[in-house]
Amino acid sequence: MDERRQLARQLDEIQQQVKELEIRYEQYFAGLERREPMNERKNIAKQLRHFTNRHIVWTDLRFRHQSISSRFMSYGQYWDRILRLMDEGKYHRHIAKLKSASTKPAVAKTVEPQTEAARLQQELSRARASCGLAAGAPSAEKIADFLAVQREKIRNRYGDRQVVFSIDSSGDKPRIKVSLKQ
Question: Distance between CA atoms of 25 and 127, rounded to whole angstroms?
């Protein structure tokens, strides 16, 4: 039993190291880490090879080792692909996600309702707050782009009829509603 516990403990440690390595690689890909965590990756690979050459009698521990090894190999292929894309200059970091994760959620700004997009943004922010959602309404520019696309779709379908945009809070989350002006 002592050998079984020792094997289980070693597999726990390797599993934890794989999780930490995954986080380190994600930080490297996001630009938070300056260097690729190659040494840690080599150490984990060496430990897994040590287990591969060892005969594990217990089925559950053998299965655990195989699942950890296959997960590590899958991560390795993914990391190699991202590294290759970075070398080729085709990988774009998700800086917007990085900024949103590092800052606190923004409080809805009060914008003078000069345009329809700004008015809709304010109404959408209020509706999201009343529904208990995070106060992260899209920017006025995104709403203006959405309105332009919707106007074009309606113009193609119904001609040059005027449309009215409003906020619909009837569902689980508020949406911009488009209707034809009567």
Answer: 39
Residue pLDDT, tens place only, 87-136:
888 777 765 555 555 554 444 333 333 477 777 777 877 777 777 776 66
Supply the range of the domain harboring residue 38: 2-98
- Read off the DSSP letter of residue 1: -
- The residues facing 180 across adjacent strands are 163
CA distances from 161 to 75, 95, 151, 179 (A): 54, 41, 10, 10
24 in Cβ contact with 75 (< 8 Å): no
The CB-based long-range contact list for 160-165 (8 Å cut-off, 24+ gap) reads 165/116, 165/120
Please tell me the total count of domains within the chain.
Answer: 2
The pLDDT of residue 18 = 94
66 and 20: one domain? yes
Shared domain for 31 and 93, answered yes or no, is: yes
Regarding whether 141 and 86 lie in a shared domain, the answer is: no
Please say whether the beta carbons of 111 and 144 come within 8 A.
Answer: no
**Span 62-89, pLDDT tens digits:** 899 899 999 999 999 999 999 998 888 8
pLDDT number for residue 72: 95
